[in-house]
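User: structure tokens for this one?
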Amino acid sequence: MVLKLSEQVVLVTGGARGLGAAISRAFAGEGARVVVNYRRSREAALALQAEFGQERVLAVQADVTDPAQVAALFAQAKAHFGEAVTTLVNNALVDFAFDGDARPQGEVIAWERFATQFEGSVRGALNTIQAAVPGMRGRGFGRIVNVGTNLFQNPVVPYHDYTASKAALLSLTRTMAADLGPHGITVNMLSGGLLRTTDASAATPEAVFDFIAAATPLRSVTTPAEFADAVLFFASPWSRAVTGQNLVVDGGLVKD
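Assistant:
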């Protein structure tokens, strides 16, 4: 079974601002029903809901690291749209800013920073995937897209905690792809570089953006909207035979 984008019920974690908002808008623009999950960005989430109308976009607060809140999130989505979530985008980023010069170096970074990122990237994704699977299995269709990073191929800044958590998320992506494939559920990762511009990358000096742009074949820094286009591909019928993959979306800067 394959669903068109317009037939899908999509949950975007951290979907209210930055990259998440671009992904939410991209799905809504294709006619999908979208659940915009947020933790603190209530006003931004409600603005997206108002932009498309509540029959198309529903804003729901939940901390994805809390299994009980995740269960309530999925229940509210099903109650509102009358169908289970078919498509899950794990985009939520927990308490991190891309401020390279201010990041602690490897010899001094505390384990607590790693624990925070693993809680958000790995535990959060595990919680949402486990909550999504029963509904997806019941439909014989599911699309799970995890948002990663190109930094574990190209570790040019000391984001040790963030990069390690995303590398672990890639492992989870591949093991879940093998586990869930027989149920018609695909699991993939999209790994971007620095995006121009999100709240998380706003602390990046303009000279860094220009340097990255000059190093890419496209001579530009990927935008959130461009990254969101690739998310749509992994949810679309055209990717029906693709699972367990990691697609780098950074203008050709990194070759995976």
